[in-house]
């Protein structure tokens, strides 16, 4: 039986007015307790690197469950851009990478730094139609960071398959708030510190099985070995099977904190989480007299940052992106947050 939203909310602290999960998630109670216990143990000399193997393996398995892929298709990392760099390094010279206008730069810079690649950007709504026979890779976020808009994932995947293009999708703004199926794509990346409420430093790469042996693990180190403790010295390389060959050495405390959060989200009905957040997003836009969108992340024009300053003054945590005020509604938010935003911004509107 799935954990109810009410029970899940009780795992978080003082969340009233926190509308910034799209920037940084909040730690749940289990994360805080696990990190404190680990720090205490380390302080007393009770930790060695080998002590973290179990928690790292648990984190991998939980993400595989959340992303609906096999555990052998999941690699571990610490930053989105670094994992995207692995994908960029794999592409042959002359490849065309198709992306979205205004895409998060961790999904574009790794390709742009290669002058022998062509990077083409189109509006999100045109992404599927812009794929053609010369497209090598479609690199995009399933939910856009700046706007909260959803890509038509099915259409993109369908058109990519039709034209022989590979798909590389960033799930960072989706996993934990919107249902995801990483198996739809050739490659995905996700940093867990936003909607999955994990410490920064716990990130994932999923790689479809037919690519395990085709993508060079250019960042390979000791943790990419079949037996990590037999892979720390020398020039005899025995890489791990499956996607684990793309692992980088884990940020151990991050995984200690990530596992309780991943356990919590794996127990939730993520469809229910999305409906909850999207309803609050729609209510907020309606209260502000803006065109209604049913998204957990909604934005309104705020070129000079006045609205963000008004919310900050009212004790509300939000963010500003690309000249717009960004409001992110997660499972801990409720109608009181909508009312607080409306009151703060209506006062601003009256002053103007």
Polypeptide structure, described:
This protein has helices at 5-9, 29-43, 53-67, 80-90, 109-112, 153-163, 252-266, 270-287, 306-313, 335-351; strands at 74-77, 96-100, 118-122, 137-141, 166-170, 187-191, 203-207, 297-301, 319-321, 324-328. It has two domains: 5-27 and 269-351, Aspartate Aminotransferase, domain 1 (Alpha-Beta Complex); 48-266, Type I PLP-dependent aspartate aminotransferase-like (Major domain) (Aspartate Aminotransferase, domain 2), CATH 3.40.640.10. The protein is globular and about 65 Å long. Helix 3 (53-67) runs parallel beside helix 7 (252-266). The protein starts with a helix and ends with a helix. Strand 2, helix 5 and strand 3 form a beta-alpha-beta unit. It is α/β, with parallel strands linked by helices.
Structural class: alpha/beta
Query: Which residue ranges are poorly predicted, with pLDDT under 50 across at least 5 consecutive positions?
Result: none
Give me the CATH fold name of the largest domain: Aspartate Aminotransferase, domain 2
CATH superfamily of the largest domain: Type I PLP-dependent aspartate aminotransferase-like (Major domain)
Tertiary shape: globular
């Amino acid at each position: 039986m799935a954990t109810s939203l009410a029970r899940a909310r009780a795992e978080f602290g003082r969340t009233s007015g926190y509308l910034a999960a799209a920037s940084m998630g909040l730690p749940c109670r289990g994360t805080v307790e696990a990190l404190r216990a680990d720090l205490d143990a380390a302080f007393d000399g009770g930790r060695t690197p080998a002590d973290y193997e179990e928690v790292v393996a648990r984190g991998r398995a939980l993400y595989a469950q959340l992303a609906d892929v096999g555990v052998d298709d999941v690699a571990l990392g610490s930053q989105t851009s670094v994992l995207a760099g692995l994908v960029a390094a794999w592409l042959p010279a002359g490849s065309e990478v198709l992306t979205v206008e205004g895409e998060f730069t961790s999904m574009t810079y790794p390709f742009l730094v290669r002058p022998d690649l062509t990077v083409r950007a189109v509006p999100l709504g045109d992404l599927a139609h812009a794929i053609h026979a010369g497209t090598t890779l479609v690199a995009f976020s399933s939910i856009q960071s700046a706007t909260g808009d959803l890509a038509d994932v099915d259409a993109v995947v369908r058109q990519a398959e039709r034209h022989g293009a590979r798909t590389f999708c960033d799930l960072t703004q989706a996993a934990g708030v919107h249902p995801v199926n990483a198996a739809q794509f050739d490659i995905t990346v996700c940093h867990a510190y936003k909607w999955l409420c994990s410490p920064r430093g716990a990130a994932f790469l999923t790689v479809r099985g037919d690519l395990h042996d085709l993508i060079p693990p250019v960042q390979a180190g000791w943790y990419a070995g079949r037996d990590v403790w037999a892979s720390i010295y020398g020039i005899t390389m025995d890489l791990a099977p499956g996607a684990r060959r793309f692992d980088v050495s884990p940020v151990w405390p991050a995984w200690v904190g990530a596992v309780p959060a991943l356990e919590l989200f794996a127990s939730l009905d993520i469809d229910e989480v999305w409906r909850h957040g999207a309803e609050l997003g729609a209510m907020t836009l309606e209260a502000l007299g803006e065109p209604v969108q049913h998204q957990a992340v909604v934005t309104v024009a705020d070129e000079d940052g006045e609205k963000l300053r008004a919310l900050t003054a009212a004790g509300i945590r939000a963010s500003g992106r690309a000249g717009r005020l960004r409001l992110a509604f997660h499972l801990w938010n409720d109608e009181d947050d909508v009312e607080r935003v409306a009151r703060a911004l209506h006062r601003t509107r009256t002053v103007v």
